[in-house]
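S1.2 Input.
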Amino acid sequence: MNSFTKKEKEFIKKLNTPALVQDFLSSLRFNFDQKKGTLKSPLFTLRQKNAHCIEGALLGAYILSQHGFKPYLIHLKAEKWDFDHVVAPFKIGNFWGALSKTNHAVLRYREPIYKNIRELAMSYFHEYFLDDGRKTLRQYSSLLNLNDFEEGWEVLAGDLWGIDEALDKIKHYDIVPKSYIKRLRKAERIEIEAGKIVEYKK
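S1.3 Output.
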């Protein structure tokens, strides 16, 4: 089985707060491999130094688990014409925050100030829109505990499609009442322009 080297373990040990983990995730180049599609384990994301949202969430959740946090993911589900997002929530005291890997100026890190997972998920709602201003976030999932998966997922050489499938199947909760969807106000032009800012070019 693959394993983290001593140097890699020492590096992970230094990332001992959610803020430091987020700083590291933000420093990774964005993974634009859309043709083949990848879902690397934390070990291979660390070594290849790039990640898309779920790869970043997996790596972040794993690093947090090495510092006493439970390795959680939540799935933010959008309308079919937009992309979903995955974040790694963490709890400090009675409050929740989240790690997030994104290439855009929005849908990023959340401070641990939210009372529950619904509050945390709702904090992403107004940032979640298309270039025409339509707001598209519709559901959030229950917590997915990565400890429930077979031991060794964090160092697997192949893609972790089973985790992706589990996120799809886990219970989801509506964010917007279906009767209100058609009445949602579009994002304003200045918000749309700000949303187009990207950290890394393809």
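S1.4 Remarks. Strands lie at 29-30, 50-51, 72-78, 85-92, 95-99, 110-114, 137-141, 144-145, 172-174.
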